[in-house]
Specification:
The protein is of the alpha/beta class. The chain folds into two domains: 174 residues, 4-Layer Sandwich (Metallo-beta-lactamase, Chain A); 78 residues, Winged helix-like DNA-binding domain superfamily/Winged helix DNA-binding domain (Arc Repressor Mutant, subunit A, Orthogonal Bundle), CATH 1.10.10. It contains five helices and 15 strands. Strands 1-2-3-4-5-6-7 form a seven-stranded mixed beta sheet, with helices on one face. Strands 8-9-10-11-12 form a five-stranded mixed beta sheet, with no helix packed on it. Strand 9 and strand 10 form a beta hairpin. Helix 4 packs across helix 5.
Length: 276
């Protein structure tokens, strides 16, 4: 395949909740039973190492998933708990795993929103935030967390949340939840991505196409975000229209900042937009 080929999200992920899946030497994963339009088949937690291990993203507030993770490491010692970001499908179960293992929690910090909230904003986009989360050890971009037979370097990947980290196992050319120059990406939702950089290039082209679609709609006249979603996201699952709206808003915030699109006041989810 060339880099110009589409690389759609792989939806073939037959892993069942609670089953321990050895995907690579030193890497196991367990799927949480929290499927939804936003989480695909559910949140994937990872166990790194053997004997003395790290758990990455303990998942949502789910007792059964915590029990499955602890059962998977029975006879081993959990030395680290790593959290990529503070959404409610990734971090709340951390408290259960820490209580059971005593392992310290590593993360960028408490929740920080992916975008500033304007004073004029009436609707919050942060309903999925885990505001109770606090790490024991705050990790910065480039810092390395070392365990028995593994070393994971923190890679700042803000966007999904402002405190989002990926963890790169440089020796294995692997990356847990993120985007950089490693070859193999272990996703927080769905199967591993074997050609990570190429997949990211596809996502960039996809976002560029979405921007073009927004400008094409605005060339026909001013519109609010629901009108743009209806024009752009044909056949979308109705449960995802709100998320699609915030995706469009992210583009519009950028287009307004670049002077390409105009709106009255701050760029808000309920605003009306026009070509500048």
């Amino acid at each position: 395949m060339s880099d110009n080929d589409d690389v759609p999200f792989n939806r073939d992920f037959p892993l069942k909740p609670g089953v321990v899946d050895d995907i690579r030497p030193g890497v196991r994963r367990i799927l949480c039973n929290n499927p939804s339009p936003f989480t695909f088949t559910g949140t994937v937690s990872y166990i790194v190492g053997k004997g003395n291990v790290a758990i990455i993203d303990p998942g949502p507030d789910d007792e059964a998933h915590a029990a499955a993770l602890l059962d998977a490491v029975r006879g081993e010692t959990v030395t680290h708990i790593l959290v990529t970001h503070t959404h409610r499908d990734h971090s709340p179960n951390t408290a259960r795993i820490k209580a059971a293992t005593g392992a310290p929690v590593y993360a960028e910090g408490p929740h920080r929103a992916s975008r500033p909230r304007y004073e004029s904003e009436r609707i919050s986009s942060e309903s999925g935030a885990d505001r109770d989360f606090r790490p024991d050890i705050e990790v910065r971009d480039g810092e390395t967390i070392e365990g028995s037979g593994w070393a994971l370097q923190a890679v700042a990947t803000p966007g999904h949340t402002a405190n989002h980290l990926a963890f790169a196992w440089r020796e294995r050319k692997s990356l847990f939840v993120g985007q950089r120059d490693e070859d193999l990406y272990f996703s927080g939702h769905g199967p591993e991505i074997p050609e990570g950089p190429r997949y990211v290039r596809f996502l960039i082209r996809h976002r560029q196409a979405r921007e073009a679609s927004i400008l094409h709609r605005l060339a026909k006249g001013a519109a609010d975000i629901p009108a743009m979603v209806r024009a752009i996201y044909i056949g979308i699952d109705p449960r995802l229209t709100g998320a699609a709206g915030y995706s469009v808003l992210a583009h519009l915030e950028d287009l307004v900042a670049r002077g390409i699109v105009a709106t009255d006041g701050d760029p808000l989810i309920d605003g009306t937009y026009r070509l500048a």
